[in-house]
Every structure is written in C-alpha cells, then in structure tokens.
Specification:
Layout: H1 2-8, H2 12-24, E1 28-32, E2 43-47, H3 57-74, H4 78-109, H5 121-124, H6 128-141, E3 146-148, E4 154-157, H7 163-168, H8 170-187, H9 192-197, E5 199-205, E6 208-212
Length: 221
C-alpha cells in the first residue's frame, strides 16, 4: 500500500478504496505477506490471473471502441446521438426483461390457473422511487456494480463494462449509458420531466461515476 501511495502520489485511503472495488470485481487478489517480524502481516496485492480473460470480452470492448470512434467522427452531435441510441437500447432491455419474466411465469404455472392480463408496468411502478430502483437493478445486471442512497436519488457506478472505450470516447460511451438509464426510466413509467433531468458525471467519484437520478437544479446533463 505504501509503495502504491508513493508511486502514484495518492493517499493510502484512496488507494484502498480502489483496491477494494477491484477485489470485489475479482480483478485483484489480496494475500498476507510472509511474516518476517512481529506484528500484523502486511497485505500483498496482485492482478487476478483470469482478469479480462472472459471469452469475447476484449473483442467486444474493441468493437465498442471502434463504433464509438466512428460516431464521434461522423456525427454532428455525437453526445445527443449517443443518448438517443442508448435510450432505444434501454427501452428494449426492459421489454426483453418483461418478456422473459412473463414466459418464466407461464412455464411455472403450466397454464393450470387462469392468469389475469398483465397490468401496465407503470401501475406496478406507481412511484418514481420504484422506477429508479428498477433501473438500479438493471444497471446491476449490466455489470455497473451500482450503489445508491436510501431514496435511489444518487447512484455510484463502481464498474464500467466499457471502461477503455469510455476513457477514449467519453462523450459517446457515457452518452449511451445515460441514454440507457433514460430509456429504462421511461419504460418503467418514471415522470418524463424527471427522466430527462437525469445526469451522469463520469469518473467524478473515487473509483466510480456518479449518476443523479433525481438531480438538483442547474446540474449538467
């Protein structure tokens, strides 16, 4: 820890936060050092042997980077276009999830009991709070490792499935991610005005991006 602190000139507590997230994501391993003297043994950190080796992960990231670069070069309004692309994707993700849930329910009951027609999802998500929590669950499924406050107003995204691409083309990649959130919120029945007020602040927190699902006035979108 001390060596890392000296190398990158960051406080040990900041480094520990980042390492804890990497350990949680199974990208870093932590082991005790061999005891050479009295006292508590030090922790040693090393990259996990399988980090980044999932089948197709590098190819997917490379494709995303290429597409983001193409949008950035050819679009007159890359951020806005990225948001709209993400919005369509977010709506489709919610619809696919509903279809899968309905099919699973139908298979479980084997249609032995008459089932009422599904109520509009906006009825089950009658409050914006419920809609926001639904979106947080979706972001968790997508691999963003979100953590939120009690009212699901502010969310910290501790992982980015396209981290390298986001660093290279943040305007596009982060725009798509914001669009996913807005599209999903809309599909879950969130208030349209509040949906359009959601804001994503990339790399603004230690080891995380900040997503404001209920931002204050004047906040950048």
């Amino acid at each position: 820890m001390a060596a890392l602190s000296e190398l990158i000139r960051q406080h040990p507590n900041t480094i520990r936060e980042h390492l804890d997230i990497l350990i949680y994501d199974r990208l870093v391993m932590r082991t005790h050092a061999d005891v050479q003297r009295r006292g508590r043994p030090a922790w040693l950190y090393s990259a996990a042997p399988d980090a980044g080796s999932e089948p197709g992960s590098r190819e997917y990231a490379a494709l995303a980077s290429a597409l983001a670069g193409q949008i950035a070069r050819t679009s007159r309004h890359p951020h806005e276009d990225a948001i709209e692309a993400g919005r369509l994707w977010g709506r489709e993700l919610v619809r696919q999830s509903r279809t899968t849930t309905d099919q699973s329910s139908e298979t479980a009951t084997n249609e032995t009991v008459p089932r009422k027609s599904a109520a509009p999802h906006s009825a089950s998500a009658s409050s914006d709070v419920v809609a926001r929590r639904e979106v947080i669950d979706l972001l968790d499924e997508l691999g963003f490792a979100p953590s939120a406050d009690a009212r699901a107003r502010v969310v910290k995204l501790h992982r980015c499935p396209l981290l390298e691409a986001a660093h290279q083309q943040p305007e596009v990649v982060c725009g798509v991610h914001l669009g996913i959130v807005r599209g999903a919120l809309g599909e879950f029945g969130n208030d349209p005005e509040r949906t359009e007020g959601t804001a994503l602040q990339p790399f603004s927190e230690p080891g995380a991006c900040r997503l404001d699902l209920l931002p204050g006035r004047g906040m950048a979108k």
